[in-house]
Design brief:
The protein starts with 12 loop residues before the first helix and ends with a helix. The protein is built from 15 helices and twelve strands. By secondary structure, the protein is of the alpha/beta class. Strand 1 and strand 2 form a beta hairpin. It is globular. It folds into two domains: 126 residues, Aspartate Aminotransferase, domain 1, CATH 3.90.1150; 234 residues, Aspartate Aminotransferase, domain 2 (3-Layer(aba) Sandwich), CATH 3.40.640.10. Helix 4 packs parallel to helix 12, helix 5 runs parallel beside helix 6 and helix 13 runs parallel beside helix 15. The structure holds pyridoxal-5'-phosphate. Pyridoxal-5'-phosphate binds next to helix 5.
Length: 419
Amino acid sequence: MDINKINSDEYSLADFSAYKGDDLFDVREPFWAFMQDAIAKKYMVYGNPISTAPRSEFQVYDRYLDKDRNFLNFCSYNYLGYSCHPDVIKTVQDTVGKYGTGAVSAPLLSGYYDLSKQLEESIARFKGKEAAVVFPTGYGANLGVLSCLLKPGDVAVMDILSHASIYDGARLAGADVKVFSHNNAEHLDTVLKNLKNPRRAIVCIEGIYSMDGDLVNLPDIVAVCKKYGTRILLDEAHATLIFGKNGRGVAEHFGLEDEIDLTIGTFSKSFGAIGGFVTGEQKIISYIRMFARAYVFSCAMAPHTAAGILKVLDLYEHDKSNRDQLWENTHYMLNALKEVGLDTGQTESQVIPVIVGHDHRLREISKRIHEKGLYTGVVTYPAVSNKRTRLRLSMSSNHTKEQMDTCLTIIKEAFDAVK
Ligand SMILES: Cc1ncc(COP(=O)(O)O)c(C=O)c1O
């Protein structure tokens, strides 16, 4: 790597993650040169400050024009529009007036408020489980739960497409990590059969896979886990409030909720807020509350965030018409993308990948869609392999037909222009 003349077209982020100089900080020089070249070529579409609410159109700072401008928003996880719901906003505002701006302490000390307890009880009730613990983030929930349950020598068995927080939780525990091919129950069977003690393992799966939008093959995977007596952790981050008659997620959709040992969820997606949770049997939740370091050693969720989420639960229990609208929008967009011949993978949900291929093509395509005023997820390594990069559309109940049509036109033109 000649750090004086780095051409960003010749590198991907993966090259820098693997780079190891003599000094710990050596990586900064080639990475800085890469970034400057990528910015000059207008490839840098990450980390632009947003200056309005995450509605279906929002204002984003355009570093190339040095000003804020309007973008179509197909990037936020505001699937049901709750982050901008007037009743939720009013509840949050009122709660800030009473409780101040933050929890200002870890939960086992003085960061646990009446609203925190209410939220945990409501989430447990909503999910039909004995108990819940609320974490500051969904990432922290996976990290905390897996790292406190698994010990060195134990095994985390995970779908190869599992979220980084699942991998990181297992690594932090010092557990062995074994992967099975995506959604492949037969391969899972082989992995579990070869374990010394499958009862000291946990199988980690996701309701909706976050980069592909497809559903877990839950019936077959549950059957294999039962055969070996292996515990199951199901991450329903993207599925909560979307799947199942009552919105409890993909386990409810398949009628298999009683077979799941621990369920992870996040408040950062359909709930429109921030935070994560785990639900399960009361006794194991009580252990997690004392030993999950991402819970114990981190400041608790702000009371006003808890109040906003409680309001969302209340609104949702009385009216799910925004979910119906989300499904209508999802089907409309997905059919439109397929009709013009774009590859949307195996998605069955509001998470719609539009597969691009190599990282270099993604850069050119993302530059073009940004110029045209479309904001989508631009997903490359380390979230996916740099040969299967993609635009990722996050659908919302708030998208209009006109916005979806414009989104399609912009994407189609960019894909046609960059072969
Ligand atoms: C499957 C999955 N689990 C966990 C998380 C982390 O959640 P949070 O963003 O709330 O930390 C995400 C976030 O995208 C996710 O997709």
